[in-house]
Specification:
The complex is a heterodimer of chains A (509) and B (227). By secondary structure, chain A is an alpha+beta fold. In chain B, 24% of the residues lie in helices and 30% in strands. The C terminus of chain B is likely disordered. The interface between A and B is large, with 56 and 63 residues.
């Protein structure tokens, strides 16, 4: 993998100059909280440094022009540059305003050679008054370090290149995401170059510096890291509306919802996408924001989107007591290409209607109140089914466990085996309690079952079947199950021996 | 030549599939009055003996079911097996473990519907095939309280199964009772079959009583006694 990095030195200064259209006089410094965040080359020549107090900087260079830091401006000014880089390379990732990495291998294949591609990238980024340095290497981190010197590291030479750099280059570049304190500790310990760090054994670094240390160590050894990940489209699809008068009535909300949904649907249709997860955000007149995410198994149609937004607004306006809605935003969170096969073959006559009413109930009670049972693995009865909110994709079907309670299974669960109402006593013929010993043997023949104030004569029982699972977790389950029938064989229980007492897990009724 | 049977020209040719299905369903309804959930027509073949609920469970009507979880789970299993969509309102203790994993996707559970359980059941009845409405304690609905629910039930397609909720004049009453549990002796075996006595009482019909056996296919024994 070849990566090119383009570094725009002192980008906050360059952005400030771009915005002011070159009327700022040199030397310039960008300040945040009375400290210098970045300074121009001329200012640096006068002795101004990053992290210096503004007051001290002004003492060194009285004519220093101080501009307040503004991340929004940095980003805004950078966007147009990135757009022109997109014309040259397909895969451009912005690490921070002022630093981009590009998948150079793909660009080189397309344009003929690496040098040509790099030249074209620099050409694309060049503007009047803009300074840019390019570097290339096999990994993202190495390319970023190389870009600070404007070097192209040959293929396979990353390790020797990085080894010669001082450790301080790591803390100079915030986009590398290196922990400052770890770098400081390492230099205190006498490690000054990356090469010295790379010579240490990984286990020695891991045991002393943990994940942060291993991250630096990986950079120092020029190990392959992630690939260039360009930002994928998706955010732009959000549509919003700001009402002229705050929406207080449900019918007005429904009208707004319909219009907004139609707008979003057209937008997505043009892009050839369908929405699977939709976020509805409403800003209230108090300034607060309420939001709700809707998941759907099937792609949302225009009517489906409008319905969801209308139900949501209906809920907020009538029951939520949230107040009037000032503005409304629809953001598609998950998009997918339309699944033609599903559309053609699913008959969906009743499925469609069922989904509609279930989602209606979901809007009333909330996502977590409408559940769908999902088969889970387990040996008992209660643990074999878990629940997920309706519409969410369930995990894969688990295997059937050996030793699971066989069918027919009881259909009524107790309130839980630790619940006081589930506790029962098993008595033998002499009236003493039947317990389970360490060898999973009953201490006597069960004769009577006492549950709350009722007593049942036992005519048959099966088990006990011991279960010792989860011993590797924090909550091991050591239990034994037993089926017990009352006289007449018309009443049955599934009992569990847990924490040295019997309780009902389920009823055969 | 195949495919040249006489086509009925009296009916307008519908291109829309949904419209065509609706048209055919209308014909069925016109022939046999109340339309039953289709699964129960073949229930006899699935269960031992003939169908244990003669005539099936009527759609767009209320069926009163006695508090019998095994029977309700069995009904849910049969309906979902045929592809029907079921909703269960207000029954957190009902276990779905006995149902095949594939059919669970056709079930929606609302264990805690809150105070609006009747309304929730009504909304669900507009789109599902069967809705089970259960209350913790016995609740008798006055005609005035039942009216909005019944109106929604008539509007939709669902069969509403009320457990512990008494609706005035239900179309069908079903009671399930465990008659016998098989397979267990003193410290041996395990439960391998359950007999349920199913009693039905339909308006204008004689009451019926059938026995429904819940069991699994015979399993091959892993251990055999030799000699």
């Amino acid at each position: 993998m070849r990566v090119a990095a383009l570094w725009f030195p002192d980008w906050p200064v360059q952005a400030a100059q771009l915005e002011a259209e070159d009327v700022l006089a040199e030397p310039i410094a960008i300040a945040e909280q009375h400290r210098v965040l970045a300074c121009s080359r001329q200012a640096r020549a006068r002795g101004v440094r990053r992290g210096m107090r503004v007051r001290n900087a002004q003492a060194i260079a009285p004519e220093l022009q101080i501009v307040a830091a503004n991340q929004d401006r940095d980003g805004r000014m950078f966007v147009s540059l990135v757009a022109s880089l997109d014309d040259v390379a397909a895969s451009v990732e912005v690490l921070r305003p002022g630093l981009v990495v590009v998948d150079l291998a793909a660009a080189a294949r397309f344009h003929g050679s690496e040098d040509k591609a790099l030249e074209m990238l620099i050409d694309a980024a060049s503007r009047r008054g803009i300074d840019v340095l390019a570097g290339a290497a096999d990994e993202i981190a190495t390319a970023v370090i190389a870009a600070r010197e404007g070097q192209v590291v040959a293929e396979g030479a990353s390790k020797s290149f990085v080894a010669q750099r001082p450790l301080k280059v790591l803390s100079a570049e915030p986009a590398l995401g290196v922990e400052e304190t770890t770098v400081a500790t390492l230099s205190q310990l006498g490690i000054t170059t990356m090469g010295q760090l790379a010579e240490l054994s990984p286990s020695a670094v891991a045991t002393r510096f943990g994940a942060a240390g291993m991250y630096i160590h990986r950079i120092a050894r020029a190990q392959p890291d992630r690939r260039v990940a360009p930002e994928l489209p998706g955010k732009d699809y959000a549509v919003g509306i700001t009402a002229e008068e705050p929406i207080e009535r449900v019918d007005a909300a429904a009208f707004a919802a319909r219009a907004l949904a139609a707008q979003l649907h057209t937008k997505l249709q043009k892009a050839g996408l369908q929405c699977l997860r939709l976020k509805v955000v409403a800003e209230l007149d108090g300034g607060a924001c309420v939001e709700r995410v809707w998941h759907t198994k099937e792609a949302l149609t225009e009517a489906g989107m409008a319905d969801r937004v209308r139900w949501q607004l209906d809920g907020w306006l009538t029951t939520g007591g949230a107040g009037a809605i000032v503005s409304l935003l629809l953001e598609p969170l998950e998009l997918a290409a339309p699944d033609m096969v599903g559309q053609l073959w699913s008959s969906g006559a009743t499925g469609e209607g069922a989904r509609r009413v279930i989602e209606r109930v979901q809007s009333q009670l909330g996502m977590d109140a409408v559940l769908q049972p999902v088969a889970a693995s387990g040996r008992g009865v209660a643990e074999r089914v878990t629940f997920v909110p309706y519409g969410e994709v369930a995990a894969e079907t688990p295997d059937v466990f050996v030793g699971a309670i066989p069918a027919p299974l009881p259909a009524l669960l107790s309130s839980g085996i630790d619940h006081p109402t589930s506790q029962v006593q098993l008595l033998d013929g002499t009236g003493s309690a039947v317990v389970l010993n360490a060898e999973i043997l009953l201490s006597g023949q069960p004769y009577e079952l006492v549950w709350q104030k009722r007593r049942y004569r036992i005519c048959a029982w099966a088990g006990p079947w011991p279960v010792d699972e989860g011993w590797w977790t924090a909550q091991p389950a050591r239990l034994a199950r037993m089926q017990v029938l009352a006289e007449g064989k018309q009443q049955g229980w599934l009992l569990v021996w847990h924490r040295r007492r019997w309780s009902i897990e389920a009823f055969y009724s | 030549m195949n495919g040249t049977a006489i086509r009925s020209v009296a009916e307008p040719a519908t291109t829309d599939r949904a419209a065509q299905i609706a048209q055919l369903r209308g014909k069925i309804a016109a022939l046999g009055g109340e339309e039953a959930v289709p699964v129960f027509e073949s229930a006899g073949a699935l269960l031992s003996g003939s169908g244990y609920i003669p005539g099936g469970i009527p759609r767009r009507a209320v069926t009163q079911v006695e508090d019998s979880p095994l029977l309700v789970a069995e009904l849910l299993g049969q309906i979902t097996k045929a592809g029907g969509m079921c909703a269960v309102v207000g029954w957190p203790e009902l276990s779905y473990a006995g149902l095949p994993a594939k059919q669970l996707s056709n079930i929606v559970a609302i264990p805690e519907p809150g105070v609006n359980d009747l309304q929730v059941a009504g909304v669900l009845a507009e789109g599902c095939d069967a809705v089970v409405l259960r209350n913790r304690t016995r609740m008798v609905l006055t005609p005035a309280r039942a009216r909005p629910l019944l109106a929604r039930v008539r509007k939709g397609e669902a069969a509403l199964l009320c457990v512990n909720v008494e609706v005035p004049s239900p179309a069908l009453r079903i009671a399930g009772e465990v008659a016998q549990i098989y397979g267990v002796a003193q410290g041996r075996g395990c439960i391998d079959a359950i007999d349920l006595t199913v009693r039905t009482e339909r308006k204008g019909h004689a009451a019926t009583k059938r026995v429904l056996r819940l069991d699994e296919q015979p399993r091959t024994p892993n251990l055999q006694v030799v000699g």
